[in-house]
């Protein structure tokens, strides 16, 4: 193989290794505070967000009127259900 062809290939490989190393060593963004309700932050999300209704959906209450929103998506396209 010719040196003129080998040099660009080696440069691309070196740049890929450096960028791959940077991607793997950079800090990953935190999911806390972004509305994620993991097992560790379950109490925080309940204090900040709406309550859970009888069908395990989000429960919104205002002036004695309640609306519960659920999302069903196991094996089918997502289906939003609203219960008054």
Coarse structural class: alpha+beta
How many alpha or pi helices? 2
Tell me the major beta sheet.
4 strands, antiparallel
Q: Spell out the helices and strands N to C.
A: HHEEEE
Give me the Rg, rounded: 25 Å
| Shape call | elongated
Low-confidence stretches: 36-42
Number of strand elements: 4
Distance between the termini: 74 Å
Give me the side-by-side strand order of the main sheet: 1-2-3-4
Question: Strand percentage, roughly?
Answer: 15-25%
Q: Helical residue percent?
A: 25-40%
Mean pLDDT: 77
Report on this model:
By secondary structure, the chain is an alpha+beta fold. The chain has a domain of 36 residues. Helices cover 36% and strands 24% of the residues. It is built from two helices and four strands, in the order ααββββ. The protein has a four-stranded antiparallel β-sheet, with no helix packed on it. A hairpin with a 6-residue loop joins strand 3 and strand 4. The longest helix is centred in the N-terminal third of the chain and has 23 residues.
Describe the secondary structure blueprint for this structure.
Blueprint: H1 3-25, H2 42-48, E1 51-52, E2 58-62, E3 65-72, E4 79-83
List its salient traits.
single chain; about 80 residues; about 25% strand
